[in-house]
Amino acid sequence: MSSILTPVLLPFVSVCLVAFGAQPGDATSPDWLAVGTQAMVASDSAPASQAGLRILQAGGNAVDAAAAVSFALGVTRPESTGLGGGGFMLVRWADGRVCMLDYREVAPAAATPDMFSRPAGAEGGEVPPPSRYGPLAVAVPGTLAGWEYALRVFGSKPLPELLAPAITLAEDGFALDAHYLDNAADALKTYQKHPGLQQSCAYVWRTFLGSGTLPRQGDMLRRPALAKLLRLIAQDGAGCLHHGPVAAQIEATVRAAGGILTRDDLERYEVRRREPLRCRYRDYTVLTVPPPSSGGTAIIEGLKILETFDLPRLATTDPALTTHVQIEALKHAFADRARWLGDPDFGRVPVERLTSAAYARRLAARIDVNRTKPPDDYGTADAAELLAPPVGDDGGTSHFCVVDKAGNVVVATETINTEFGSLLAVEEYGLILNNEMDDFTAVAGAPNAFGLIQGEANAVAPGKRPLSSMSPTIVLKDNEPVLLVGASGGPRIITSVFHVMLCLLDYGRSPEEAMTSCRPHQQWSPDEVCFDHDPPASLAAALQQRGHHLADKRRTGIVQFILRRDGTWIGASDPRKGGRPAGY
Ligand code: GLY
Questions:
Q1: Which residues line ligand 1 (CB under 6 A)?
Q2: Residue 255, φ and ψ in degrees, nearest 5
Q3: Residue 125 pLDDT exceeds 70
Q4: Among 574, 225, 238, 204, which Cα is nearest to 418's?
Q5: Measured from the CA of 416, which atom of ligand 1 is nearest?
Q6: Which one of 41, 49, 283, 528 counts the least CB within 10 Å of its CB?
Q7: Each residue of 432-466: pLDDT tens digit?
């Protein structure tokens, strides 16, 4: 791999300083990159990265620090994440042990496959889609249960110490940034379109949207109700969201609004420890997450297809062809995502086959380097073939990565699904409830909030986990972590993580270039490519010549990564959201 550490970063490599955003005296290094020799946190919120750094500096391990980051993100990113949601986490210890935790939300026991096909109650104005807004959208949250498990098994610090930074942020307040205000403006449009929500989801309307008069950038937001919940957790332990008065209050809120989630659902919630997906990709080993996320499967399917191309050479000789094959590889993966992926506890999901080198070679052979094809030409529609024994704007999600001074690493992506989740909140505790039910195939054949058409394998069923795109990923070289990466942004998570991985592993890009270079997104359906910003005219022309439909939409995921180069950790927080890494 060619050096990806740019000259502007080199002066900092040997200095062991607390690094937070821009380096003192450096005019050129962006403040969303940081370099440290010992430890690093990258998240999409500067105060949350600082919370993790504080725990690392106090001797906490990567899991302790990641918990502090998650709790702080739940305060400072109410639009993206929080204890009312769920997530996936990969932990790798310096000695090579790996653990994957699935704390994805699950459908309540009373959920049925047709619950979103029935007409919903009137909310005033056009009826808001019930899988997206309000009580039926809420799946049983898992985030706190995930951290309860992780800290019980791997943590070294007392829970109150890990909650302290989040409690301070909730009580003292934090400054609102452009990302918050963009998402608040989107949520405001939803409330304007469906005015009945102003009453049925009044807490989010009042607390985060100023009852229709949005706050300004830089205004401070305090969250005393959430501080109360965090103090309760510090006192009673991380199990308290699933039992006792908090669980009763969640049930009361959802049921009063007409939902189906019960205290029993909360009590029965279980974190699942799953085997991570592993694949060899050129000189690297990739560790990532299995279903019920589609992210790891799609990324590995895409990487194995691209392994059949000489990408490092192509990236210098024919960048447009490189982008074309990058798009085509994931178009296959997204087609298979739609047809085959769902909760593995509820049916057979052919992950082994989809991620095998033999299958990748067959898909790669179907890629025409001169032309994209119609959607039906992607992936495998034939069940007999696939299930036969093998022959040979980001919205409500947040990703973060942590490495500690011993080399233990955590990558986690957590979500409440779309901005401010279901918009329904438990007022007493400032707890915003997710709308993860929309990640199921809510209505067969109809796109979800991210435009994804999904299949039977992802139909709603009681206790089932909705299919996700979250893709926390660890890349190893010579058995050492060289890249921790993940993103937020629904299906754009997959294409963003994939693009940044290719930039860093294959295309010889610097960290700045990997983060900022034009990212293509093609999710098979709709059959269009969108970019995060205008692509160079030559690239647009080359893709159009190959038959790609280029959309005018400018969208991508929000990536956080930590890269190992020349004995240092380089943290990077996607400037599109405004996070800052922190390390020393
Ligand atoms: N809620 C976004 C995802 O899980 O993909």
A1: 397, 415, 417, 439, 468-470, 490
A2: -70, -40
A3: no
A4: 204
A5: 1
A6: 283
A7: 999 999 999 988 888 888 888 888 899 999 999 99
Q: How far apart are the two ends of the chain, measured CA to CA in Å? A: 25
Continuous H helices in 130-272: 143-154, 159-172, 178-193, 197-200, 202-209, 224-236, 244-256, 263-268
Q: What is the domain partition of the chain in residue ranges?
A: 57-81+97-272+414-458
Residue with tokens 């300083």: 17
Q: Hey, what are 132's tokens? A: 């997206």
DSSP for 471-515 reads --EEEEETTEEEEEEEEESTTHHHHHHHHHHHHHHTS---HHHHH
Q: Which amino acid is at 461?
A: A
Q: Residue 398 class from Cβ within 10 Å (0-12 exposed, 13-18 middle, 19+ buried)?
A: buried
Q: What is the β-pairing status of strands 550-554 and 529-531?
A: parallel
Mutation pick for ligand 1 pocket among 417, 452, 495 (CB with most ligand atoms within 8 Å): 417
Are residues 417 and 434 in contact, defined by beta-carbon separation less than 8 angstroms?
A: yes
Please, which residues bridge with residue 354 across strands?
A: none
**CB of 496 within 8 A of CB of 556?**
yes
Does residue 7 register a pLDDT over 50? no
Active site annotation includes 397? yes
| CA distance linking residue 191 with residue 538, whole number of Å | 41
> Which DSSP helix (H) or strand (E) runs through 101?
strand 98-103
pLDDT at residue 17 is higher than 70: no
Instruction: Assign 123 a pLDDT band (cuts: 50, 70, 90).
Output: very low
Atom of ligand 1 nearest to the CA of 469: 5
Is 50 exceeded by the pLDDT of residue 11?
Answer: no
The amino acid at 220: M
Q: Could you tell me if 230 and 163 are in contact, meaning their C-beta atoms sit under 8 angstroms apart? A: yes
pLDDT for the residue numbered 385: 60
* Given the residues 397, 413, 516, 568, the one annotated as active site: 397
Buried b / exposed e along 291-303 (16+ C-beta atoms within 10 A): bbbbbbbbbbbbb
In the three-class reduction of DSSP (H, G, I as helix; E, B as strand; rest coil), residue 293 is classed as strand
Question: What's the mean pLDDT in 338-345?
Answer: 95
Phi and psi dihedrals of 429, rounded to 5? -115, 10
Which atom of ligand 1 lies nearest, measured to the CA of 488? 2
Q: How far is the CA of 179 from the centre of ligand 1 (A)?
A: 18
pLDDT tens digits along 83-99:
999 999 999 999 999 99
The answer to whether 90 touches 402, Cβ cutoff 8 Å, is no
